[in-house]
Amino acid sequence: MANGGQLAVKDGWVYMNPYLWSEGAHQLVKSKPDGSSRTKLSDDKATSINMVGDWLYYVASEPSKPNAIYKIKTDGTERTLVSQTNASGLWVRDGWMYYHRLAERSGNENAPYYTPGGIERMRMDSSEKQTLLSSMDHIKYFFLQGERLYYLIGEGEKKKLYVMGNNGSGQTELRDNVTEISIIDGWIYYVRDGKQLRKMSGDGSIDIPLHESARTPIFGLNYRDGWVYYVSGSFGVSGYASMERIRLDGTGRQALAEARATALYIAEDQLYFPYWSIGDRTMYHMKIKDPQP
């Protein structure tokens, strides 16, 4: 979810939006991890895809209801509008929907744009809404782990990492100059200054450096079987970044492939990545090879 939620995995199926395009048709589909048995579920431009039982919850953009929350059965039936709340970064956990509340900003009245204005949560049946963090500009994303909610505030490499209870209580600053985070086995894996991959204990008292990259920034953190996967480098209009992995203790770093990858997702033995091209992100995947002994 911290990588945008363009893909989710459950019970041997991949649910994803394979074409996150600025223009043109979109689809919400399901397939096997190797790409076989692909089936269209809807024509939604879906992001923040969450699995909840037999339902997918996600954010979809439509002209009449921008960034509304929908749900649909995993077989493509019973597509339902859950809330017209203008939202992004949706996490669905324990009966609540957590999301960025988007605020409309000034601009062309025919093409308004939105920025995060705070963090809210809403009951899955929309019966109750709570503001957890209000009027905070420059929220990059938040990461929900158990009863804790981690979030980044700021711009560029000057972001600060905070933690609070999932009810909005006890807001605490943990680190500054943080650009990416992931929570693995109770440890916070994070990127500092765009180039240092580090990990720290949940309360911040222990901090261990793992890797410093000459190709910056490091982003797209994900985890599988004792390895942290990430993208290192920038690509812009031309060029490629490196998709890499490193063991949880910082050893055994391996470069996997070069690509214009904007995020990383893992489905069994497949590494999925949105391939960027002039603003469009098309999903590709490759088999993850076992490390050499």
TrEMBL record:
Q: Name one Pfam family in it.
A: DUF5050
- Origin: domain of life: Bacteria
Q: Which residues does UniProt call coiled coil?
A: none
Which segments constitute the Prolow-density lipoprotein receptor-related protein 1-like beta-propeller domain? 1-286
Query: What's the protein called, per UniProt?
Result: DUF5050 domain-containing protein
State the organism of origin: Paenibacillus oleatilyticus
Q: What is the lineage of its organism?
A: Bacteria, Bacillati, Bacillota, Bacilli, Bacillales
